[in-house]
Design a protein that fits this description.
There is one protein chain. By secondary structure, the chain is α+β, with helices and mostly antiparallel strands. It is 18% helix and 32% strand. It folds into four domains: 109-153, no CATH class; 158-301, Methylamine Dehydrogenase, Chain H, CATH 2.130.10; 348-439; 447-711, Alpha/Beta hydrolase fold, catalytic domain (Rossmann fold, 3-Layer(aba) Sandwich), CATH 3.40.50.1820. It has 13 helices and 38 strands. A hairpin with an 8-residue loop joins strand 13 (228-235) and strand 14 (244-248).
Amino acid sequence: MKKFALLLLPVYLTGCSVDNEEAEQSVAQEVKVAAPVAKKVPKKMQIHGDERIDNYYWLRDDTRSDPEILAHLQAEEDYAMAKLAHTQKLQDTLYDEMIGRLKKDDSSVPYTKNGYTYQSKFVTGGEYRIYSRVKQGESEEQVLLDANVLAEGKDYYANGSVEVSPDNSLLAYSEDMVSRRIYTIKFKNLDTGDMLSDELTGTNGQIIWANDSKTVFYIRKDPTTLLGYQVYRHTLGTSQDDDVLMYEETDKSFYTWIGKSLDNQYIEIFHNSTVSLGVSLLDANNPQGEFKVAHAIERDLEYSVQPHGDQFYILTNLNAKNFKIAKVAKADVADKSKWQDVVEHRDDTLISDMLVLNDALVYVQRENGLMGMRVMDLNTNKVAPVEFDESLYSVYLHTNVDFNAQQVRVGYQSMTTPRSVYDISLDLTSIDLKKQDEVLGGYDAKQYHSERIMMKARDGADVPVSVLYKKDMFKGDGNNPLLQYAYGSYGSTNDPSFSDSIISLVDRGFVYAVAHIRGSSMLGRKWYDDGKLLHKKNTFNDFVDVTRELVKGKYGAQDEIFAYGGSAGGLLMGAVINQAPELYRGVVAAVPFVDVVTTMLDASIPLTTNEYDEWGNPNEQAYYEYMLSYSPYDNVEAKAYPNLLVTTGLHDSQVQYFEPAKWVAKLREMKTDDNELLFHINMEAGHGGVSGRYKRYKDRALVFAFMLDLLSQ
């Protein structure tokens, strides 16, 4: 699925360092504010002989225009802001810290393509990127797109794709001004600076140029389900009404994406469901032709192809649960019996990505949960690892645009090392650091420690946990506050990464723990399979068990544990506090998917049908009963819950705003404690929150202030 009666005391955090200025902000007068109470309008729902009553179903309005509902949401937002008003000075301090670590005039690492060197950058005071290029052999910079100008006067602005035509004369870019992830594609003449009359509406934001520089391919979204399901061909200078439908996905369990091969031979359509992945191809020199599927789409078969001369290299799970890399002659790609192994399957190693260059095959793998990269010389078939100094890190393919390149560009980071970009020669004799994000304010990686530990779950499984703390703030005596994060769905894995904002908590004595629970792919595809469908409760149990083990291991103080999760991780938060509310001082559930049963029974809700192979189809009784047993909304009880901060965006396209709205209303009705329950609703944003480089840190500061304030009480 894929902003408070204010009695403020001096802030004394066990294991934390809080300066006098922050302590002073926590002295205020109590302000009496009443929590909003949603009316109850019973709605009866029946299936499989079971009846449920949903008293808050009325909070759903797909048009987002009902005055009563908007008034209720605004009342919740006003209540949250009033209840957090006394933390404003702390929020300001945190915000200033966070943006103070950012280099104000930062820029990306340049890359060269088709005779031009491209770069994007932020300028001091700018919220958005400026995209530019310089022609090789010249020095004058040409601004392609200044998103700061385009975003002026708008509550929300985001670019999807920014793509220059193969002949270098035209720019195509997509923009979303609502935060529903529905984009309009526009075109600009780079020689004159004039805008073309062509505008393509209702798209997913992707733009793929054919090699003729006058034809583009794009995906239209279903306006109800928000699924990208139709691939169209557009010829510049014609109306969108005349665009040619090239492919339509009729199976609503599939996502549809488009791409272009690195050697510019093919336009690609990717057909992707939870358990299947395949690709259709079109000669990029013949955009008037037809797409042909490389290999028939089969349930439980996942494959992608990358061309190399008269062969395809294939990343696939064919007889390889953790994936392998094969190759085959292009003429035989439809016959999987002819796929020949190049990198064989291993039970302890998940291959997650690959890049095929003219002289090398580069692939990313995760061995026993730890990331690594390998380079295979395609002339000798020798394989060598790319070596880094740290053992706990993330490495991933970055901006690679030249099939004939003699180096590969990769991204690298760890929990202590800021985001970095390297160019690595294919013979591994040269590893050139092109850039490492500059963290201002005196950050010194040597002052921090990260490690991977294994925690025992109730069924005996060993759950990996990545831990970060500041060395001089951690004594291992169980007196530190701790923030535990996880996601745990869709096989998505939170590899070790650097957070310039989490430093604000760690510098105050927090231990930050990322639990790699089942439902992720940290330990391979079996780890994912053991956390979905009828095994989904392993995800929630793992998180709770990790919390208990972290306390037992003295990583955190028993009464100072916080939890955070968003989207499907928000479902995790809801299930965890139903199971073990006593473990947590405070919980943050961001854009939470909490009304699992009702949503999964409604195919009109965006993304529902794509999720059947992740959660199950509740139209089948076994899945219905299992979902019902853990769905956070359906399992709210009359009992004490921890302090809660719930967030959403009115225009969320992934998890609709009414899920958390209903959940908060039911929690207000049922919970027996006096703990905080705050519902922060951004009336302009969607699933990813506010747009802009700096604005997002306002919400992060609010979340951190919520937690720090609880420690002061």
